Amino acid sequence: MGRLAATRIMGAAAAVLALSACAGGNYRPVSDSPLRIGQPYTIRGTTYTPAAAPAYDALGYASWYGSESGNRTANGERFRPDWITGAHTTLPLPTYVEVTALDTGRRIIVRINDRGPFSHGNRIIDLSRGAAEELGIKVQGIAPVRVRRVEPSKKDRERLREGKPARALKPVPQQELQQLRARLSSRGH
Fold this sequence. Notes:
The protein has 189 residues and is an alpha+beta fold. The protein has one domain (41-186): RlpA-like domain (Barwin-like endoglucanases, Beta Barrel). It contains four helices and eight strands; from the N terminus they run αβββββββαβαα. The chain has a six-stranded mixed barrel with strand order 3-7-4-6-5-8. Mean pLDDT is 87; it is low at 4-23.
């Protein structure tokens, strides 16, 4: 092999290494600080205004996403579809929420680290595939939920930051579940 050919091969190898470094790096470490509220932003003609919302408690629908594996979340972390994470349009990043499946009463704690859902309608949260599986709504695709902002224990926050589920929560009692469903239904959802 001549000197020119070797130089070309070395140059091509260096270019490939440089490009591969751009594709996979510079993700923000998974951390609970700094807490980011952010500026208002517009997606498809709708303006969203992030806010602290410490008493956030909403009824609506959840969907899930998972094929974006490897993409960067809105707070700069690597998206990991099997982790118990979610996306919300306005809550601070990161935030912890308790999500209740209104069909079953099953509850989980989810770490919000992304923005979405950006669909017109009544979807209030997008869950990672892992969160949808943990909540039992993956097969349905879209399910009625309650989403409440919570302050989980230090151990639960740590588990979620490591990609593991938080401690199991007891299901919502049937009487309370019926009241939540009635509230959602009364809103025309």
